[in-house]
Design brief:
7 helices; binds manganese (II) ion; alpha/beta; seven-stranded mixed β-sheet; 13 strands; 21% helix; binds nickel (II) ion; six-stranded mixed β-sheet
Length: 219
């Protein structure tokens, strides 16, 4: 699997299927590219309906006839139905099993207009990646690897204000124990400025990899 940080909370996972989480390209000041430059996407995972996460989900789904995966109320909402994109609605605790991929929906502690916000665990080629979505710290986060299996990588927000700050995100790392953690959702706008090096320091001995928008790692 190849993991790319596109910027803000947008993450691309390339493997047997190409998975795009929280696509936010237009009006994203830190997006590494426009969505036209993406490879063909098979699944778009939206953690919730805030603009900085749902952003370009419908445009990319239309472009590639990709399947949108989201909480039931968002997947069945008027804006998704009118767009006629393929959508799979699910809910927290559930797992969608497709060819070469497993997508599980996890809890998060945040808000949204349609349904509950969530996170995702994506499993492909024997690798497992967690994207928490927007969330504050919650102690049940410790159960995610127990429920869905050991995590190879975790994308976690660190900016505070709307989500966990560096200290809370480091607490999440200690609970999740992923092989690698990658900070997201910071320094997009002045209001959400944060220090990824502080997050890395507080997460020790667990490993943190700070990816700049546009950077990738192979797993
Ligand atoms: Ni949000
Ligand atoms: Mn957000």
């Amino acid at each position: 699997m190849r993991l790319s940080f596109i910027g803000h909370a947008a993450v691309l996972i390339e493997g047997p299927k190409n998975v795009l989480i929280d696509p936010f390209f237009k009006n994203n000041p830190v997006a590494a590219m426009s969505y036209e430059k993406l490879p063909k996407i098979d699944f778009i995972l939206a953690t919730h309906d805030h603009f900085d996460h749902f952003g370009d989900a419908i445009e990319v789904a239309k472009r590639d006839q990709a399947t949108l995966v989201a909480i039931h109320e968002l997947a069945t909402s008027a804006k998704v139905a009118e767009s006629k994109v393929n959508a799979i609605g699910m809910n927290i605790g559930g797992t969608y099993e497709g060819e070469d991929i497993k997508i599980s929906m996890t809890a998060s502690l945040h808000s949204s207009s349609l349904g509950s916000p969530c996170g995702f665990v994506v499993e492909m080629n024997g690798g497992r990646v967690y994207h928490s979505g927007d969330t504050g710290f919650f102690s049940d986060i410790v159960l995610i690897p127990k429920l869905f299996g050991k995590l190879d990588a975790a994308f976690l927000p660190i900016a505070g204000h709307y989500v966990m700050d560096e200290k809370q995100a480091a607490m999440a790392v200690k609970a999740l124990k992923p092989k690698l953690s990658i900070p997201i959702h910071y320094n997009t706008w002045p209001l959400i400025s944060a220090n990824p090096d502080l997050f890395a320091k507080l997460s020790k001995p667990h490993k943190v990899k700070i990816l700049q928008p546009g950077e990738s790692i192979e797993m």
